[in-house]
Write a structure and sequence with these properties.
single chain; alpha+beta; Immunoglobulin-like; 7-stranded mixed β-barrel; 5-stranded antiparallel sheet; 10 helices; 24% helix; globular
């Protein structure tokens, strides 16, 4: 891995080093795509949007782009405004834009080969001096199997003046190529049509001006209607998603919150909650869980449970905040309300309560171990960071001449590196230390299943009924001559063992076990296979 990383870095640095003049005010060429903006002499407001010109030059990875080259990805007008809330304090502004046709109508555009859409963001990394914390988080979420905003580092020139390194990003939005859930229309007021799709978020209400609702269990937890927005929703639609969130919270607050039929799993996609939790804790994100925290719900006919995500707003993560212990590589972000009682909004109570369920704990532990063996391995993360840093090497020099903040405190830096490489090295060291702390402190016990798959070319098995009251059939697609079946509970204790001799089916009986999710393991003499079964109250 180290040899591959070194060779890649040398190659990238050879392609791009010393080939471009670093200047604070002008840009002639870049290995990054270049975005040219002309505001026609207008000042860019927060609201309303203004019409400006945008041209994009991208001759492909490994090819130098020149400001005199022909526009490749976009050449026309866009509606344009400053975006963000807290980030508007910084002199380097972030923007939202929408492509327009010659008549001034919104149009979908394909930019950098990304799926066509009309809502885009030019994000300005400013307090994050690595210029990559958001991109890293989205990359990891995508590797986990979830949609996250696709990004592209670019350099921006506005009205002939160089503006620095930006990230072009997809706005969080319901779309077949973004958050792929059903489209909710004004006609969807009853039945299955009313049940989705919704994107909401837990967030602060600063400058929102929009209709919001609170958790019934904590008045300092605020929900916003994101897509559709509050002005696009009918009262019956708002009431539906408000009541659904309340039903989820009520189930989670109950003494039977872990029950497979009536507990939190009735309302949630558990795996998405686990992955969201792991990424928030890995980043020890100071705003984690309580701000820019997205949730989505599809129609019931499409699954219809609350899913966490997409991930968003990680510029003050991974040790880049100097308050509420967010800089520390130890401790839990979900306990924010206790550690920083004077800060608002609050983290919802969900995360603490979920971890009181042993099965949930075990699933968290198993998922973490699985990810740590692949792209969350320290070597893999360092390889990604080093590769992006090498790619940004020339551009970051221009960026920090334009914005001379290396070695300078910017709200709310904890570490202040004197060089770009200092910042990159700190990010790597911090993530490694944080990962090791999570290795040693995440709760739960992962049940080891060697060579376990649900269905193989040689063997598959079926459980019925599932859910079951404790008595169920196990049917094999092939006869097993000398094997065995085991049933384990959430902490790995074996509750049942039975031999399989020249059988294609068998009856399993679990008596006097509590309701919950159990693991059925089948050994065919060579390999081991597993499935989950839900046991309900007898």
């Amino acid at each position: 891995m180290k040899l591959i990383s070194t060779l890649l870095l040398i190659t990238i640095q050879f392609l791009f080093s010393n080939s471009m003049q670093v200047s604070a005010q002008t840009l002639d060429s870049s290995n990054l795509p270049i975005i040219i903006l002309d505001t026609y002499g207008q000042t860019i407001p927060d609201d309303p949007r203004i019409i400006i010109f945008m041209g994009i030059i991208d001759n492909g990875f490994g090819t130098i782009n020149h400001t005199t080259d022909a526009y490749t990805d976009y050449n026309g007008e866009v509606s344009f405004e400053i975006r963000g809330s807290t980030s508007q304090q910084y002199p380097k502004k972030s923007y939202a834009f929408t492509p327009l046709d010659t008549a001034g109508n919104n149009i979908n555009a394909e930019i950098f080969g990304l799926p066509q859409e009309n809502d885009w963001i030019l994000y300005a990394p400013y307090p994050d001096k690595t210029l990559m914390r958001n991109t890293l988080t989205f990359y990891l979420a995508n590797k986990m199997g979830h949609y996250s905003s696709r990004t592209k580092h670019v350099e921006v020139v506005r009205n002939g003046s160089y503006r620095g390194v930006y990230e072009l990003m997809e706005k969080v939005k319901r779309d077949n190529n973004r958050v792929d859930i059903a489209k909710l229309t004004p006609a969807d007021t009853a039945g299955d049509e009313l049940t989705g799709g919704y994107i909401i978020k837990v967030d602060k209400t600063t400058a929102s001006g929009a209709d919001t609702f609170n958790s019934n269990y904590d008045a300092e937890v605020f929900f916003q209607f994101h897509d559709p927005e509050d002005t696009e929703l009918l009262p019956v639609q708002k009431n539906y998603i408000i009541n659904y969130v309340d039903s989820f919270e009520t189930a989670l607050m109950s003494s039977s919150f872990a029950h497979p039929d009536s507990g939190f799993r009735k309302y949630t996609d558990e795996n998405s909650f686990i992955d969201f939790f792991l990424l928030q804790e890995l980043g020890h994100t100071v705003d984690g869980y309580r701000s820019s925290c997205f949730l989505q719900k599809d129609k019931n006919s499409n699954g219809g449970k609350l899913e966490m995500g997409p991930m968003w707003d990680f510029n003050l993560s991974f040790g880049n905040a100097d308050y509420c212990n967010a800089y520390d590589t130890i401790g839990w972000q979900y306990e924010f309300n206790t550690g920083c009682p004077g800060y608002f909004p609050h983290v919802p109570f969900w995360w603490n309560k979920l971890l009181q369920d042993t099965l949930y704990q075990n699933s968290v532990q198993c998922r973490w171990q699985q990810l740590r063996e692949s792209f969350l391995h320290t070597d893999s993360i360092n390889f990604w960071i080093d590769s992006v840093a090498a790619y940004l090497n020339e551009a970051q020099q221009r960026n920090f001449i334009k914005w001379p903040i290396l070695g300078v405190y910017v709200n709310w830096n904890y570490y202040i590196g004197q060089t770009y490489q200092n910042e990159v090295d700190y990010l790597k060291m911090w993530i490694e230390a944080r990962s090791k702390w999570l290795d040693n402190n995440l709760p739960g016990n992962c049940i080891p299943v060697i060579n376990a798959v649900e269905n193989s070319p040689t063997l598959s098995f079926y459980i019925s009924p599932n859910p079951s009251n404790g008595n169920f059939y196990i049917t094999f697609n092939n006869q097993i001559n000398n094997g065995k079946v085991e049933v384990l509970n959430a902490i790995g204790q074996t509750l049942l063992t039975d031999k399989i001799i020249n059988q294609r089916s068998m009856i399993a009986k679990l008596n006097d076990v509590p309701a919950g999710i159990y693991l059925v393991k089948v050994f065919d003499g060579k390999n081991q296979y597993c499935k989950k079964i839900i046991i309900t109250d007898n």
